[in-house]
């Protein structure tokens, strides 16, 4: 049944998605695009929409995927099944973090000077950086950069200019996003 598979997938994402939404993207993509519930193009669109909407990207994407995935099987096509799937995925992806923070947070706060706790967090930091970098590489696909060589070159140049503006100017990120969207509309 699709709902049990969604619960299992989002339990794994919730338990092993350390580092926030961007660090979870590779795991989400593997669990959701792999079974064919959505395409890579739709996944890329979900990431973009989740970034624009308020709230964490992992929860926003879980809600959307939970709504869309049941319609991949004919017996669960319809908005009520989608709403049920959205509720299930949203609750299940949050549940492991809630349990971990509820029960481990007190212990970590009490023993924050412990060598063991410091070692655990020292080991997690580089892993989280690696997971976020893998999310960046994951999003460098034909859906975002185009499938022809001229489109890829234009996309890479646009990304390089945006990176340069972020690093070397004090341009407001919202203005950069608007300018990039307008530039993309003109170029593509």
What would the average pLDDT be, to the nearest integer?
84
Biggest sheet statistics: none
What count of helical segments does DSSP give? 9
What string gives the helices and strands in order? HHHHHHHHH
Distance between the termini: 41 Å
In helices, the fraction of residues equals over 70%
| Gyration radius, in Å | 19 Å
What class would the helix/strand composition place it in? mainly alpha
Query: Low-confidence runs (pLDDT<50, min 5 residues)?
Result: none
The count of DSSP E runs of length 2 or more, i.e. the number of strands, is 0
Percentage of β-strand residues: under 5%
Query: What is the overall shape?
Result: globular
List the helices and strands and how they pair.
Layout: H1 2-16, H2 21-32, H3 40-52, H4 57-68, H5 79-110, H6 115-138, H7 142-145, H8 149-168, H9 173-187
Helix pairs in contact: 1-2, 1-5, 2-4, 2-6, 3-4, 4-5, 8-9
